[in-house]
């Protein structure tokens, strides 16, 4: 399998301006398997200049033509899904079965955005002033600089690429330095679909490439999926440069509220999926479970059995349940959280197997955690969830909301009235009832509080990448 080692700028494949490269390890083995160009500030400047030059022509391209390019890209992704999945599986360390599911989602998201863009319209308002007609337009902003994460490198890149380009903007995308290869494969599939300069990919780290991109004075909007601290840095960069628009999808610490009437077997299955899918490296992961004391033991027993049945191992095997985490440093960080939780003296650990190679770490349930514990309060971003018992609905709703995050939450109950009341009271951008984790391109994804601002997916995402313009026509002079 070939992995691109070059960047894609102005319609061409190019090395870093200084020729530097980075070695990329495979999380499943820990061994270097590819190298990638280490971009520079000069590379960012070149990509932004290309995007700026391409903007007028792309903005003037009818939306139907833009949509047709995306429909062609969706077909190519579908035809190439096995290769894309194998690249992503090896680069991220996720099981091939999960990577294949994501490729199907990506093709669907591309088609949704292509159709959704054609429904975007201005509005013929009315005469608010005698003899003058007001019209509203939605215009593109210009050059967008986006930073994609390493946990879902291609899917979340699509969430940035699609609304930006389909609304007439041009784009410079920086994938994570850990996981650039599926995005570069996408650029290869798309290189003849867009005019030169419309879509650019610059690889490198956040300290130089990312920082230059989000602070560049020509970039009119920055989109980031990352940590709260990185989001704060981007806001400072916007303030210090040109007050560019920001779209931020940041951290999460999703609570799972399990009431006494919940279907425990269903709840266990959904917590397992929500907590351990993608090795728990998901900002919406089911990372803190609050369970009613009446069903606490039943839930814990079910989780213990399910954790011990998880199949960690060869990520190329379609029966594998969970892979490694992204880097050795991240593995050590996750295991540090678990060690400190154990050291509190009031918790018990349920842990699955650890193959011991690469960057694997054992899936873990921390039982007996208290609401104030670090393991409950802080985003771990790994295959770890905590279990805390409760007795009062008001208490558990307050605990769930007592966080700086507000991305996602879930409620498990058979009582529809309770489900509606609790979901209304929860301060999160998405609330599932008797489920956890599924997303669909028709519905928005985004958080409250310090989980960010703006929405990915849905027509609301398309609106994020446009500017509303008021045009007033003096009919008396016509």
Key traits:
478 residues; alpha/beta; Aldehyde Dehydrogenase, Chain A, domain 1; Aldehyde Dehydrogenase, Chain A, domain 2; seven-stranded mixed β-sheet; globular
Structure commentary:
This protein is α/β, with parallel strands linked by helices. The chain folds into two domains: 7-251 and 447-471, Aldehyde Dehydrogenase, Chain A, domain 1, CATH 3.40.605; 254-404 and 408-433, Aldehyde Dehydrogenase, Chain A, domain 2. Helices cover 40% and strands 21% of the residues. It contains 15 helices and 20 strands. The strands form five sheets. A seven-stranded mixed beta sheet has the order 14-15-16-13-12-17-18, sandwiched between helices. A six-stranded mixed beta sheet has the order 9-8-7-10-11-19, with helices on both faces. It is an enzyme of class 1 (oxidoreductase). Residues 13-471 form the Aldehyde dehydrogenase domain. Belongs to the aldehyde dehydrogenase family.
**Structural class by helix and strand composition:** alpha/beta
From the alpha carbons, calculate the radius of gyration and give it in angstroms.
Answer: 23 Å
Lateral arrangement of strands in the main beta sheet: 14-15-16-13-12-17-18
CATH topology assignment of the largest domain: Aldehyde Dehydrogenase, Chain A, domain 1
Mean pLDDT: 96
Helix content: 25-40%
Low-confidence stretches: none
CATH architecture of the largest domain: 3-Layer(aba) Sandwich
Number of domains: 2
| CA(first)-CA(last) distance | 64 Å
Number of helices: 15
Q: Outline the biggest β-sheet.
A: 7 strands, mixed
Number of beta strands: 20
Q: What's the CATH class of the largest domain, please?
A: Alpha Beta
Oligomer: single chain
Write the CATH homologous superfamily of the largest domain: Aldehyde Dehydrogenase, Chain A, domain 1
Globally, the shape reads globular
Strand content: 15-25%
Keywords: Oxidoreductase
Family: Belongs to the aldehyde dehydrogenase family.
Protein name: Gamma-aminobutyraldehyde dehydrogenase
GO molecular function: aminobutyraldehyde dehydrogenase (NAD+) activity
């Amino acid at each position: 399998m070939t992995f691109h080692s070059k960047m894609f700028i102005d319609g061409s494949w190019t090395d870093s301006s200084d020729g530097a490269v980075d070695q990329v390890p495979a999380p499943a083995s820990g061994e270097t398997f590819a190298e990638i160009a280490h971009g520079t500030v000069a590379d960012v400047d070149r990509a932004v200049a290309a995007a700026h030059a391409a903007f007028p022509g792309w903005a003037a391209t009818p939306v139907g033509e833009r949509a047709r390019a995306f429909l062609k890209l969706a077909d190519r992704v579908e035809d190439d899904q096995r290769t894309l999945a194998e690249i992503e599986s090896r680069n991220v360390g996720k099981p091939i079965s999960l990577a294949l599911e994501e490729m199907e989602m990506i093709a669907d998201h591309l088609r949704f955005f292509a159709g959704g863009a054609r429904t975007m319209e201005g509005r013929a308002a009315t005469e608010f002033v005698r003899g003058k007609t007001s019209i509203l337009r939605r215009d593109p902003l210009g050059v967008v600089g986006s930073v994609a994460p390493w946990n879902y490198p291609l899917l979340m890149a699509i969430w940035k690429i699609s609304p930006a380009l389909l609304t007439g903007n041009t784009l410079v995308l920086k994938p994570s330095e850990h996981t650039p290869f599926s995005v570069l494969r996408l650029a290869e599939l798309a290189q003849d679909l867009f005019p030169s300069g419309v879509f650019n990919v610059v690889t490198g780290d956040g300290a130089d490439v990312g920082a230059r991109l989000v602070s560049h004075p020509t970039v009119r909007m920055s989109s980031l999926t990352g940590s709260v601290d990185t989001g704060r840095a981007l806001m400072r960069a916007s303030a210090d440069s040109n007050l560019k628009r920001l779209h931020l999808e940041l951290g999460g610490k999703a609570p799972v509220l399990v009431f006494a009437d919940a279907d425990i077997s269903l709840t266990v299955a959904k917590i397992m999926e929500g907590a351990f899918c993608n090795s728990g490296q998901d900002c919406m992961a089911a990372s803190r479970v609050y369970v009613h004391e009446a069903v606490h033991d039943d839930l814990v027993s079910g989780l213990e059995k399910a954790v011990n049945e998880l199949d960690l191992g060869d990520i190329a095997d379609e029966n594998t349940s969970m892979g490694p985490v992204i880097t050795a440093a991240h593995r050590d960080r996750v295991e540090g959280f678990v060690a400190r939780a154990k050291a509190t003296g009031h918790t018990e650990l349920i842990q699955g197997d650890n193959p011991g190679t690469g960057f694997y770490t054992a899936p873990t349930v921390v039982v007996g955690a208290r609401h104030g514990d670090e393991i409950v309060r802080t985003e771990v971003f790994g295959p770890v969830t905590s279990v805390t018992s409760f007795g009062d609905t008001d208490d558990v709703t307050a605990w769930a909301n007592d966080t700086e995050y507000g991305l996602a939450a879930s409620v498990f109950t058979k009582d529809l009235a309770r489900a509606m009341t609790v979901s209304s009271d929860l301060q999160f951008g998405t609330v599932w009832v008797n489920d956890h984790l599924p997303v669909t391109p028709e519905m928005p994804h985004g958080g409250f509080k310090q989980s960010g601002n703006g929405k990915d997916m849905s027509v609301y995402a398309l609106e994020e990448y446009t500017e509303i313009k008021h045009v007033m026509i003096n009919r008396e002079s016509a």
